[in-house]
Amino acid sequence: MTFREFAEKSWAVPSQYVHNRYMMMVHGCGLVDEFPSVAYAVDFEEWGYDGVFEENMVVSVESFIGEKDGIEGVKLEEQVLITAEGAVPLSSVPLCDLPDI
Q: Transmembrane ranges (predicted)?
């Protein structure tokens, strides 16, 4: 799958959260946003570039959702291994595991 195809098939960030989105939704693992950096579909013409996800790549899928001038938001990041069958999460920790209150 190409980076553009991935961007176009991905969830579109709702308009009230676009201002605070990260510049890239996928990036390589390293000290900073390493290659590849995959832009959101809305940003692809300006920030995107040609590329293809290849088997055995490890990438970070990252997002921040928070309103402009808001005081709260949610940041998620998951490292995944690209396989012939798709992306496999490398973490075994669930996104939400709340105790009974």
A: none
